[in-house]
Task: inverse folding
């Protein structure tokens, strides 16, 4: 069964701290992996997309890495800000007829001012 | 990036009535759209995959007669919750994939979500 797990489930850090969010997936035959941000009661905002052939992607203070062989991805947030507070979701795309995204369980991040 | 618009953003309906949710890709053509459901403090669960001009593919455990999906054009998919009950209250989100490109390598874009409350 294709499952995606995120650790930790919740995280609270003081402003300015660097932090790492973890995502693991059971089936390593992925097409790509995507990190999203979700604010309370809102939809999803795409942060980074890593293709299966890539090792990492960077956007501003965000850096995502991918290790297919071990079934892991990390999202690194540098110099965290209160505005970064949200739920972060990773999602893995597998092949097959529907080419669907399997979502992780999410990490609720709170950055304290 | 590509924009996906979902309407309405929230809706309250009486038990037994039907509710239609629209998902539009505003600046691109979407061959495939996905419908997700999210319960409070839980992740997104895929309900069905909608392909333009054909019947939707439903995930195991999702009632196709209750959750009617229509994908009549390359920019519009609709989800109709029929005979809604309080247990159908949830956050529904659609996603669209850009038409073209290498299959599997295209980015997914999401709508703003619809909060459905059935009373």
Result:
């Amino acid at each position: 069964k294709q499952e995606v797990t995120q650790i930790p489930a919740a995280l609270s850090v003081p402003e300015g701290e660097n932090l790492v969010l973890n995502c693991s997936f059971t089936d390593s035959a992925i097409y790509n992996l995507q990190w999203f941000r979700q604010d309370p009661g809102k939809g999803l905002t795409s942060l980074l997309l890593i293709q299966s052939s890539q090792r990492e992607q960077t956007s501003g203070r965000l850096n995502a890495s991918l290790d297919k062989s071990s079934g892991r991805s990390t999202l690194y947030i540098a110099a965290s800000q209160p505005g970064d507070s949200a739920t972060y979701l990773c999602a893995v795309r597998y092949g097959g007829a529907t080419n669907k995204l399997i979502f992780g369980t999410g990490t609720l991040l709170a950055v304290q001012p | 990036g590509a924009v996906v618009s979902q309407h309405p953003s929230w809706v309250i309906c009486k038990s037994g009535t039907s509710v239609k949710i629209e998902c539009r890709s505003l600046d691109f053509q979407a061959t495939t759209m996905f419908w997700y459901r999210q319960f409070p403090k839980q992740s997104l669960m895929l309900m069905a995959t909608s392909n333009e001009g054909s019947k939707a593919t439903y995930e195991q455990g999702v009632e196709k007669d209750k959750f009617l999906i229509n994908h009549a054009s390359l920019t519009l998919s609709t989800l109709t919750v029929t005979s809604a009950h309080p247990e159908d209250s949830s956050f529904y989100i659609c996603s669209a994939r850009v038409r073209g490109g290498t299959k599997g390598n295209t980015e997914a874009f999401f709508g703003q979500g619809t909060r459905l409350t059935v009373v």
Summary: Chain A touches chain B at residues 31-32, 34, 36, 41-46, 49, 51, 89, 91, 93, 95, 97-106 (CB under 8 Å). Chain A has a mean pLDDT of 92. The radius of gyration of chain A is 14 Å.
